[in-house]
Amino acid sequence: MDCIFCKIAEGTIPSRKVYEDDHVLAFHDIQPQAPVHLLVIPKKHVASLDDASPEDLELLGRAMLAAKQVARDAGLTDSGYRVVTNIGPDAGQVVFHLHLHVMGGEKLAGLNPKNSSESDTRPS
Ligand code: AMP
Ligand code: ZN
Q1: Which residue, of 22, 82, 99, 116, has the greatest Cβ tally within 10 A?
Q2: pLDDT digit string, tens, across residues 19-68
Q3: Closest C-alpha residue for ligand 1 atom 20
Q4: Nearest ligand, CA of residue 12?
């Protein structure tokens, strides 16, 4: 299968790894959209969250916990961060191997571009 993230998981395409275990890999996004922009992938090929099945339950949990860990290791825990997965064309998914974007290191724009003047709800 010609999947770039499977090749990264196999090690045949290089990546800047920040975390790896038997099931999950995390590495720097090659075109960061925030000061910290990491990707967490399951090593098993799952095209998107929409293709996940009940047998992937534990794997999805592992990926979420890895996202928390790499965010912590990157120093994002106190300032906050975003974990996003794009699914299909309207979300702009371009790599069809499930991945979690972990983004932070600055105040991130609101999720709704039509409402970009959202106030900061963090306690001062
Ligand atoms: P998505 O639009 O959710 O499918 O995001 C795919 C992400 O993968 C984009 O943010 C790309 O910059 C990133 N990406 C593509 N190829 C690589 C690569 N070889 N190494 C690291 N990140 C990559
Ligand atoms: Zn794949």
Answers
A1: 99
A2: 999 999 999 999 999 999 999 999 999 999 999 999 999 999 999 999 99
A3: 30
A4: 1
**Domain residue ranges of the chain, discontinuous segments joined by +:** 4-110
Residue 49 CA to its chain's centroid (Å): 12
Cα 62 from Cα 57, distance rounded (Å): 9
Q: State the amino acid at position 95 in one-letter form.
A: V
For 35-47, give one letter per residue: b (16+ CB within 10 A) or e. ebbbbbbbbeebe
Q: Please work out, in degrees rounded to the nearest 5, the angle formed at the alpha carbon of residue 60 by the alpha carbons of 104 and 58.
A: 140
* 99: number of Cβ within 10 Å: 26
pTM score: 0.92
